[in-house]
Amino acid sequence: MLAAIWAQDQNGLIGKNEVLPWYLPDDLKFFKATTINKTLVMGRRTFEGMGGRPLPNRTTIVLTRDITYQAPAGVHVMHDTAEVINYAQSKDHTVFIAGGSMIYASLLPACNYIFRTVIEDSFEGDTYFPEVKWENWRLVKKVAGKVDEKNKFPHFFEEYERIHLD
Known about the structure:
There is one protein chain. The chain is about 20% helix and about 30% strand. The protein has a single domain, classed as Dihydrofolate Reductase, subunit A (3-Layer(aba) Sandwich). It has four helices and ten strands. The protein is an alpha/beta fold. Strands 5-4-3-6-1-7-10-9 form an eight-stranded mixed β-sheet. A two-stranded antiparallel sheet has the order 2-8. Helix 2 links the parallel strand 3 and strand 4. The relative contact order is 0.26.
């Protein structure tokens, strides 16, 4: 099963120079809790923007068109979306799509679930989440995140399930 997971500002912004344009520990905690012991799929630039190393206790797949790309030990490389979809269908756990924008656009039509963090603020950046046909999704859960001295931006966590194919 495939699921997409991302954080965005109120305008759909997801990145700036290959990294998140905000610091929100509550979302990082949510991301870790949701994806631990699962598989993450991301593009090369997103992977490198996260430090170019696999996250602990997760299988990492880098999806890239570059057939010469050499990932570090412990990271799998795939070259097309069909390969990712076949991999996900062979697993007994959720495989999470974790960015960037082109990877989301190519794999969202195959996803069954969406986990989205919405930050109720605006930031500057250069990467936006691709268009989602929200009529094909049903909101099943929405939880407010905590705001405190470390988590300065109001935010909420949403979970959607697919109700119609794109």
